[in-house]
Amino acid sequence: MSGTYLGLPSFPAAAREATRDGQLRANLRHATHTIRSKRATAISELTDWPQLRAAGAAIKDHTLRHLDHYLLQLEEAVTAAGGTVHWATDADDANRIITALVHATGHTEVVKVKSMTTQETGLNHALAHAGITAYETDLAELIVQLGNDLPSHILVPAIHKNRTEIRDIFTREMTHWGRPAPDNLTDNPTDLAEAARLHLREKFLTAKVAISGANFMIAETGTLAVLESEGNGRMCLTLPDTLITLAGIEKVIPTWQDLEVFLQTLPRSSTAERMNPYTTLWTGTTPHNGPRTFHLVLLDNGRTDTLADTTGRQALRCIRCSACLNVCPVYERTGGHAYGTPYPGPIGAILTPQLHGTTTPLDASLPYASTLCGACYDVCPVAIDIPDILTHLRERITQGGPTTRQGQKTTIKPAKRHRLEHTTMRTTRWTLQHPTALHHAQKLATHTRKLHPKNPPGTTTKAWTTTRNLPQIPPTTFRQWWQQHQKQTTQPTQHTQQAPHTEKAQPAHNTEQNELTPQTPQTPQNGKSEKGQQNEKGGRQQ
After folding, report:
1. Is residue 237 within 8 Å of residue 193, measured between CB atoms?
2. How far is CA 244 from CA 238, 284, 310, in A?
3. For each of the chain's 542 residues, which pLDDT tens digit applies?
């Protein structure tokens, strides 16, 4: 399993169900608005925030352009520091490598640091299938695991749960995973945190193997960094004998100095903190200090293919701050489960279809899970133009075209359920390029306008008209309207040109005209009156 959760419906179906849950919408609205407000305050304290944002984007772009060089430099530095580097091409490969490493230790239990990459590969499921139990130690991840649930947010996986629901999960499930919850546990945050601390402490002190991700990997020294807020990650990174880290290849940065930029932008964008509470850095292994064995598994899983896309490669800048989720109006109403992927929200809508392809209805629906309002781009600390990538992916889905999959250039066909849309667009383009065909098509549309159905049949057309009305066909085409408009504007102009001649000529023929037309009509502002025109015609005929 990689990229998306198997068995989940496409985004429109899942979102329709999620938006009916009033409690879910209330929980999400409260949480996202709180984080959004605090983040805005933290960002406003830095006068050089635009410069930091530009610097982060520049560092990431430079690294991606020379990714092969920095990855080899990282491997050499990690190996020199006593670690072992493994290369995984996809999720299954990474899970196989990590499972074999755990089996080699002879243990069947591991503690885990919060890691989006392990969610991407479905590592917990693979370990369980191999007889290995993985214990999540991040508080939010622990809630999700005990509740047999799926993460709903990158930073706060249990954002869709309120305190009462969390208390019920602890009371009901902790006893099956180790130390049970205290009797008469309340929904007070302090009591809930104490219950989790006591439950996890037993795991920290007994586990011999830990698995983590990495926020950054410094190529020049082989140093890895994990940023977290609870300190549970540091317990996992220092106490066990064996540490296995799974990280995407895009997490590498060239130097220590580059880390300075992200240590300022990531905490403020994610948790609205001026400085990250726990920043753990390690380089290989150190005698009598920390794990005695260290393995680094570098994961591709579609990242090289994403890098080949000149527009979509921006997504690899992502530092997983989740700021785009907290401002997205779609995410606020649907939550993360509707996206059917470990990466929900705007960043998931562009990252998952690139890592995983658009072969399934779920992946093909994700680029449409956005209003294109641009709020995600405004808050992104590395300036990823998410709306631009969304429209780029929509074009790829509906039009097909060249792309790169598994390192090979290929041409994909339009995704299913978009072929009618694709055919309609191509037909429309051809018609617009041929004026005669356009003229006949417009006349046909206006003459049959009363026969057009209000609710057209077909899945694609129904999708277009579920939340919007079809535009009404006007009774006349623009050509017809223009011709009629020209006639109306031309007639008064002719009268206006004749009026001065009549007025000047009137004194010369005044005697004759007075004899012929006893009453001279007054000329209106836009020409002569009908009666005056008749008199003038009568005079000329004579």
Report:
1. no
2. 12, 11, 33
3. 344 555 567 888 899 889 999 988 998 999 999 999 999 999 999 999 999 999 999 999 999 999 999 999 999 999 999 999 999 999 999 999 999 999 999 999 999 999 999 999 999 999 999 999 999 999 999 999 999 998 999 988 988 888 999 999 999 999 999 999 998 899 999 999 999 999 999 999 999 999 999 999 999 999 999 999 999 999 999 999 999 999 999 999 999 999 999 999 999 999 999 999 999 999 999 998 899 999 999 999 999 999 999 999 999 999 999 999 999 999 999 999 999 989 999 999 999 999 988 888 888 899 999 999 999 999 999 999 999 999 999 988 888 888 888 888 888 887 766 777 778 888 999 999 999 999 899 989 888 888 887 777 776 677 777 777 777 888 888 888 888 888 888 776 555 555 444 444 444 444 444 444 444 444 444 444 444 444 444 444 43
Q: Which long-range contacts (CB under 8 A, 24 or more apart) does 404-412 make?
A: 404/304, 404/305, 404/308, 404/309, 405/305, 405/357, 406/305, 407/304, 407/305, 409/308, 412/358
What's the token pair of residue 142?
């622990």
Residue 85 structure tokens: 């580097």
Please say whether the beta carbons of 340 and 14 come within 8 A. Answer: yes
d(CA 310, CA 58): 15
Q: Are 73 and 223 in contact (CB under 8 A)?
A: no
CA separation (Å) from 210 to 80, 95, 104, 492? 22, 14, 13, 88
Q: How many other CB atoms are found less than 10 A from the CB of residue 302? A: 25
Q: Is the dihedral of CA 524, 526, 530, 535 positive or negative?
A: positive
Model's pTM, two decimal places?
0.80
Residue whose structure tokens are 């403020």: 268
For residue 4, give the nearest of 240, 341, 333 by alpha carbon.
Answer: 341
